[in-house]
Specification:
Blueprint: H1 25-47, H2 54-79, H3 87-101, H4 106-133, H5 138-156, H6 166-173, E1 175-176, E2 179-180, H7 181-199, H8 201-211, H9 213-218, H10 223-249, H11 256-272, H12 284-303, H13 311-332
Antiparallel strand pairs: 1-2
Helix pairs in contact: 1-12, 2-7, 2-10, 2-11, 2-12, 3-4, 3-5, 3-10, 3-11, 4-5, 4-10, 6-10, 7-8, 8-10, 11-12, 11-13, 12-13
Protein backbone atom coordinates (compact mmCIF):
# COMPACT_ATOMS: atom_id res chain seq x y z
CA UNK A 1 0.00 0.00 0.00
CA UNK A 2 1.36 3.38 -0.98
CA UNK A 3 1.84 5.90 1.82
CA UNK A 4 -0.39 8.98 1.57
CA UNK A 5 1.35 11.91 -0.04
CA UNK A 6 1.26 15.47 1.26
CA UNK A 7 -0.55 17.92 -0.99
CA UNK A 8 1.74 20.20 -2.94
CA UNK A 9 1.96 23.67 -1.40
CA UNK A 10 0.47 22.65 1.89
CA UNK A 11 2.06 24.29 4.93
CA UNK A 12 3.59 22.18 7.67
CA UNK A 13 1.39 21.65 10.67
CA UNK A 14 2.36 24.08 13.43
CA UNK A 15 2.44 23.04 17.04
CA UNK A 16 -0.17 24.83 19.03
CA UNK A 17 0.55 25.79 22.54
CA UNK A 18 -1.74 27.41 25.04
CA UNK A 19 -1.33 31.03 26.06
CA UNK A 20 1.50 31.61 28.51
CA UNK A 21 0.56 33.49 31.64
CA UNK A 22 3.40 35.60 32.92
CA UNK A 23 3.33 38.07 35.80
CA UNK A 24 4.72 41.52 35.26
CA UNK A 25 7.48 42.89 37.48
CA UNK A 26 4.97 45.05 39.36
CA UNK A 27 2.64 42.09 39.93
CA UNK A 28 5.49 39.94 41.20
CA UNK A 29 6.45 42.72 43.60
CA UNK A 30 2.89 42.96 44.94
CA UNK A 31 2.64 39.21 45.51
CA UNK A 32 6.03 39.04 47.19
CA UNK A 33 5.29 41.98 49.52
CA UNK A 34 1.84 40.58 50.34
CA UNK A 35 3.33 37.17 51.12
CA UNK A 36 6.03 38.61 53.38
CA UNK A 37 3.46 40.70 55.22
CA UNK A 38 1.09 37.74 55.67
CA UNK A 39 3.85 35.62 57.21
CA UNK A 40 5.14 38.41 59.46
CA UNK A 41 1.66 39.42 60.65
CA UNK A 42 0.75 35.78 61.34
CA UNK A 43 3.86 35.47 63.53
CA UNK A 44 2.94 38.74 65.24
CA UNK A 45 -0.57 37.46 65.97
CA UNK A 46 0.80 34.14 67.21
CA UNK A 47 3.15 35.87 69.66
CA UNK A 48 0.46 38.27 70.89
CA UNK A 49 -0.81 37.30 74.31
CA UNK A 50 -4.38 38.25 73.35
CA UNK A 51 -4.16 37.14 69.73
CA UNK A 52 -5.40 39.08 66.73
CA UNK A 53 -8.36 40.79 68.33
CA UNK A 54 -10.27 43.52 66.44
CA UNK A 55 -8.54 46.17 68.56
CA UNK A 56 -5.09 44.77 67.75
CA UNK A 57 -5.91 44.62 64.05
CA UNK A 58 -7.34 48.15 64.06
CA UNK A 59 -4.27 49.57 65.82
CA UNK A 60 -1.90 47.81 63.41
CA UNK A 61 -3.95 48.98 60.44
CA UNK A 62 -3.92 52.60 61.60
CA UNK A 63 -0.13 52.60 62.05
CA UNK A 64 0.43 50.85 58.73
CA UNK A 65 -1.94 53.15 56.85
CA UNK A 66 0.08 56.21 57.87
CA UNK A 67 3.24 54.85 56.26
CA UNK A 68 1.28 53.37 53.36
CA UNK A 69 -0.02 56.79 52.34
CA UNK A 70 3.47 58.32 52.48
CA UNK A 71 4.84 55.31 50.57
CA UNK A 72 2.22 55.79 47.86
CA UNK A 73 3.28 59.43 47.71
CA UNK A 74 6.91 58.34 47.25
CA UNK A 75 5.97 55.84 44.53
CA UNK A 76 4.84 58.48 42.03
CA UNK A 77 8.14 60.44 41.74
CA UNK A 78 10.14 57.20 41.70
CA UNK A 79 8.13 56.01 38.69
CA UNK A 80 9.57 58.98 36.77
CA UNK A 81 13.09 58.05 37.97
CA UNK A 82 13.04 60.71 40.66
CA UNK A 83 12.97 60.69 44.45
CA UNK A 84 11.05 62.94 46.82
CA UNK A 85 12.89 63.65 50.06
CA UNK A 86 10.19 66.11 51.12
CA UNK A 87 7.29 63.66 51.55
CA UNK A 88 7.95 63.39 55.28
CA UNK A 89 8.04 67.17 55.63
CA UNK A 90 4.75 67.54 53.70
CA UNK A 91 3.29 64.83 55.93
CA UNK A 92 4.29 66.79 59.05
CA UNK A 93 3.14 70.10 57.55
CA UNK A 94 -0.31 68.62 56.84
CA UNK A 95 -0.46 67.33 60.42
CA UNK A 96 0.40 70.75 61.90
CA UNK A 97 -2.00 72.55 59.57
CA UNK A 98 -4.83 70.09 60.23
CA UNK A 99 -4.44 70.54 64.00
CA UNK A 100 -5.24 74.22 63.43
CA UNK A 101 -7.96 74.23 60.75
CA UNK A 102 -9.78 70.86 60.97
CA UNK A 103 -11.82 72.03 63.95
CA UNK A 104 -15.27 73.36 64.74
CA UNK A 105 -18.59 72.30 63.24
CA UNK A 106 -18.86 69.88 60.29
CA UNK A 107 -18.82 72.71 57.75
CA UNK A 108 -15.61 74.22 59.14
CA UNK A 109 -14.08 70.77 59.44
CA UNK A 110 -14.85 70.04 55.79
CA UNK A 111 -13.31 73.33 54.71
CA UNK A 112 -10.26 72.61 56.85
CA UNK A 113 -9.79 69.18 55.22
CA UNK A 114 -9.92 70.78 51.78
CA UNK A 115 -7.38 73.41 52.84
CA UNK A 116 -4.96 70.72 54.06
CA UNK A 117 -5.31 68.68 50.86
CA UNK A 118 -4.80 71.74 48.66
CA UNK A 119 -1.73 72.71 50.70
CA UNK A 120 -0.23 69.26 50.10
CA UNK A 121 -1.07 69.44 46.41
CA UNK A 122 0.60 72.85 46.10
CA UNK A 123 3.73 71.65 47.94
CA UNK A 124 4.06 68.74 45.54
CA UNK A 125 3.35 70.92 42.52
CA UNK A 126 6.05 73.34 43.66
CA UNK A 127 8.53 70.48 43.71
CA UNK A 128 7.51 69.42 40.23
CA UNK A 129 7.68 72.92 38.75
CA UNK A 130 11.15 73.60 40.16
CA UNK A 131 12.46 70.21 39.01
CA UNK A 132 11.00 70.43 35.51
CA UNK A 133 11.41 74.08 34.61
CA UNK A 134 14.48 74.70 36.74
CA UNK A 135 16.08 71.56 35.26
CA UNK A 136 17.43 70.58 38.67
CA UNK A 137 18.01 67.21 40.30
CA UNK A 138 14.99 65.94 42.29
CA UNK A 139 17.17 64.99 45.26
CA UNK A 140 18.54 68.52 45.65
CA UNK A 141 15.20 70.24 45.06
CA UNK A 142 13.17 68.09 47.44
CA UNK A 143 15.87 68.25 50.10
CA UNK A 144 15.68 72.06 49.97
CA UNK A 145 11.89 72.31 49.77
CA UNK A 146 11.57 69.75 52.56
CA UNK A 147 13.51 72.09 54.83
CA UNK A 148 11.19 74.94 53.79
CA UNK A 149 8.05 72.89 54.42
CA UNK A 150 9.33 71.88 57.82
CA UNK A 151 10.06 75.53 58.63
CA UNK A 152 6.45 76.38 57.79
CA UNK A 153 5.36 73.53 60.08
CA UNK A 154 7.36 75.08 62.93
CA UNK A 155 5.79 78.46 62.25
CA UNK A 156 2.31 76.94 62.44
CA UNK A 157 2.97 74.75 65.47
CA UNK A 158 6.06 75.91 67.45
CA UNK A 159 5.03 73.57 70.25
CA UNK A 160 3.06 70.31 70.00
CA UNK A 161 -0.62 70.96 70.49
CA UNK A 162 -3.79 71.93 68.70
CA UNK A 163 -6.93 69.87 68.30
CA UNK A 164 -9.15 68.23 65.72
CA UNK A 165 -12.87 67.65 65.26
CA UNK A 166 -13.66 64.66 67.48
CA UNK A 167 -16.28 63.10 65.19
CA UNK A 168 -13.89 63.26 62.22
CA UNK A 169 -11.01 61.76 64.20
CA UNK A 170 -13.17 59.01 65.68
CA UNK A 171 -14.59 58.07 62.28
CA UNK A 172 -11.15 57.95 60.65
CA UNK A 173 -9.61 55.69 63.28
CA UNK A 174 -12.32 53.24 64.32
CA UNK A 175 -13.50 50.07 62.58
CA UNK A 176 -16.86 48.75 61.38
CA UNK A 177 -17.57 45.02 61.48
CA UNK A 178 -13.85 44.47 62.27
CA UNK A 179 -12.84 46.38 59.11
CA UNK A 180 -10.61 49.35 60.03
CA UNK A 181 -11.65 52.62 58.43
CA UNK A 182 -8.00 53.34 57.70
CA UNK A 183 -7.94 50.29 55.41
CA UNK A 184 -11.11 51.55 53.71
CA UNK A 185 -9.32 54.88 53.25
CA UNK A 186 -6.43 53.11 51.49
CA UNK A 187 -8.86 51.27 49.21
CA UNK A 188 -10.59 54.56 48.36
CA UNK A 189 -7.26 56.21 47.54
CA UNK A 190 -6.35 53.31 45.25
CA UNK A 191 -9.74 53.34 43.52
CA UNK A 192 -10.24 57.11 43.28
CA UNK A 193 -6.65 58.32 42.81
CA UNK A 194 -4.23 55.57 41.79
CA UNK A 195 -6.32 53.63 39.24
CA UNK A 196 -7.59 56.73 37.38
CA UNK A 197 -4.04 58.14 37.40
CA UNK A 198 -2.55 54.85 36.19
CA UNK A 199 -5.00 54.72 33.27
CA UNK A 200 -4.70 58.40 32.33
CA UNK A 201 -2.46 59.76 29.59
CA UNK A 202 -0.16 61.48 32.07
CA UNK A 203 -0.07 58.38 34.27
CA UNK A 204 1.05 56.19 31.39
CA UNK A 205 3.51 58.93 30.48
CA UNK A 206 5.10 58.68 33.95
CA UNK A 207 5.83 54.99 33.37
CA UNK A 208 7.21 55.79 29.92
CA UNK A 209 9.49 58.47 31.36
CA UNK A 210 10.87 56.09 33.94
CA UNK A 211 11.43 53.37 31.34
CA UNK A 212 13.23 55.55 28.79
CA UNK A 213 12.86 59.33 29.02
CA UNK A 214 14.61 60.11 25.74
CA UNK A 215 12.48 57.62 23.84
CA UNK A 216 9.37 59.03 25.50
CA UNK A 217 10.38 62.54 24.47
CA UNK A 218 10.94 61.47 20.87
CA UNK A 219 7.52 59.80 20.90
CA UNK A 220 5.80 63.03 21.89
CA UNK A 221 5.05 62.06 25.50
CA UNK A 222 4.13 65.15 27.61
CA UNK A 223 7.11 64.77 29.93
CA UNK A 224 6.89 68.12 31.70
CA UNK A 225 3.20 67.84 32.59
CA UNK A 226 3.58 64.20 33.62
CA UNK A 227 6.40 64.99 36.05
CA UNK A 228 4.61 67.97 37.59
CA UNK A 229 1.46 65.89 38.08
CA UNK A 230 3.43 63.04 39.66
CA UNK A 231 4.97 65.35 42.26
CA UNK A 232 1.68 67.20 42.83
CA UNK A 233 -0.16 63.95 43.55
CA UNK A 234 2.73 62.94 45.78
CA UNK A 235 2.12 65.98 47.97
CA UNK A 236 -1.63 65.32 47.88
CA UNK A 237 -1.21 61.75 49.17
CA UNK A 238 1.27 62.84 51.85
CA UNK A 239 -1.32 65.40 53.01
CA UNK A 240 -3.93 62.64 53.37
CA UNK A 241 -1.43 60.84 55.58
CA UNK A 242 -1.01 64.01 57.65
CA UNK A 243 -4.77 64.20 58.14
CA UNK A 244 -4.85 60.61 59.36
CA UNK A 245 -1.97 61.33 61.77
CA UNK A 246 -3.92 64.25 63.22
CA UNK A 247 -6.96 62.02 63.66
CA UNK A 248 -4.83 59.47 65.52
CA UNK A 249 -3.00 61.90 67.80
CA UNK A 250 -5.63 64.66 68.17
CA UNK A 251 -2.81 67.17 67.83
CA UNK A 252 0.00 68.44 65.63
CA UNK A 253 3.74 68.34 66.19
CA UNK A 254 6.57 69.73 64.06
CA UNK A 255 9.22 67.08 64.76
CA UNK A 256 12.07 66.57 62.33
CA UNK A 257 12.45 62.97 63.51
CA UNK A 258 8.93 62.17 62.29
CA UNK A 259 9.62 63.72 58.89
CA UNK A 260 12.93 61.89 58.49
CA UNK A 261 11.58 58.53 59.68
CA UNK A 262 8.63 58.57 57.30
CA UNK A 263 10.77 59.68 54.38
CA UNK A 264 13.29 56.88 54.93
CA UNK A 265 10.68 54.23 55.65
CA UNK A 266 8.67 55.25 52.60
CA UNK A 267 11.65 54.47 50.38
CA UNK A 268 12.02 51.08 52.03
CA UNK A 269 8.31 50.35 51.63
CA UNK A 270 8.39 51.30 47.96
CA UNK A 271 11.36 49.02 47.25
CA UNK A 272 9.86 46.10 49.18
CA UNK A 273 6.62 46.59 47.24
CA UNK A 274 8.39 45.98 43.94
CA UNK A 275 8.86 49.52 42.66
CA UNK A 276 12.16 49.93 40.84
CA UNK A 277 14.36 52.83 41.92
CA UNK A 278 15.38 53.00 38.26
CA UNK A 279 11.84 54.09 37.36
CA UNK A 280 9.18 52.75 35.05
CA UNK A 281 8.06 49.83 37.22
CA UNK A 282 5.92 50.00 40.31
CA UNK A 283 2.51 49.94 41.93
CA UNK A 284 0.83 51.80 44.74
CA UNK A 285 -0.69 48.53 45.94
CA UNK A 286 2.77 47.00 46.28
CA UNK A 287 3.89 50.06 48.23
CA UNK A 288 0.96 49.59 50.62
CA UNK A 289 2.01 46.03 51.42
CA UNK A 290 5.62 47.18 51.66
CA UNK A 291 4.59 49.79 54.21
CA UNK A 292 2.78 47.19 56.32
CA UNK A 293 5.89 45.00 56.19
CA UNK A 294 8.01 47.89 57.49
CA UNK A 295 5.51 48.62 60.27
CA UNK A 296 5.27 44.95 61.28
CA UNK A 297 9.04 44.88 61.83
CA UNK A 298 8.57 47.22 64.78
CA UNK A 299 5.65 45.21 66.13
CA UNK A 300 7.66 41.99 65.98
CA UNK A 301 10.47 43.59 67.97
CA UNK A 302 7.99 44.35 70.73
CA UNK A 303 6.39 40.89 70.92
CA UNK A 304 9.83 39.23 70.87
CA UNK A 305 10.99 41.49 73.72
CA UNK A 306 13.74 43.12 71.66
CA UNK A 307 14.78 46.60 72.71
CA UNK A 308 12.69 49.06 70.60
CA UNK A 309 15.75 51.33 70.45
CA UNK A 310 17.18 48.81 67.98
CA UNK A 311 14.26 49.29 65.56
CA UNK A 312 16.22 51.66 63.25
CA UNK A 313 18.91 48.98 63.00
CA UNK A 314 16.46 46.33 61.82
CA UNK A 315 14.64 48.75 59.53
CA UNK A 316 17.98 49.72 58.01
CA UNK A 317 18.85 46.05 57.43
CA UNK A 318 15.48 45.42 55.76
CA UNK A 319 15.96 48.48 53.56
CA UNK A 320 19.51 47.50 52.62
CA UNK A 321 18.48 43.94 51.73
CA UNK A 322 15.54 45.17 49.65
CA UNK A 323 17.66 47.65 47.70
CA UNK A 324 20.41 45.04 47.21
CA UNK A 325 17.96 42.51 45.78
CA UNK A 326 16.69 45.11 43.33
CA UNK A 327 20.24 46.01 42.31
CA UNK A 328 21.22 42.36 41.81
CA UNK A 329 18.28 41.93 39.50
CA UNK A 330 19.50 44.84 37.40
CA UNK A 331 22.97 43.30 37.16
CA UNK A 332 21.62 39.91 36.09
CA UNK A 333 19.58 41.04 33.11
CA UNK A 334 21.13 40.98 29.66
CA UNK A 335 18.47 43.05 27.96
CA UNK A 336 17.22 46.14 29.80
CA UNK A 337 13.75 45.62 28.32
CA UNK A 338 13.44 42.52 30.51
CA UNK A 339 13.26 44.84 33.53
CA UNK A 340 9.86 46.13 32.44
CA UNK A 341 8.25 42.82 31.50
Amino acid sequence: MNAPTKAIGSAPTARRSGPRFRLTAAQRGILLAAGIFAVMFAVYGWKQSVGLTPNVINTAANKGALLALVAMAQTLPILTRGLDLSVGAVFVLANCLASSVVVGDPMMTGVGIVVVLIAGLLCGALNGVIIVYGRLQPLIVTLATGAIFFGVSLAIRPQPGGSVNFEFADFMTRSTYAVPHSVILLVMVVVLVWIPYRRSVLGRAAFAIGSAEQAAYMSGVPIERAKVLAYALSGFLAAIGGLLLTALTYSGAAKITIANDYTLNSIGAVVIGGTSLFGGVGSAIGSIFGAFVMRTVGDLLIVFDINPVLQPLFVGIVLLVAVSIGSLRILRIKNKLDLYR
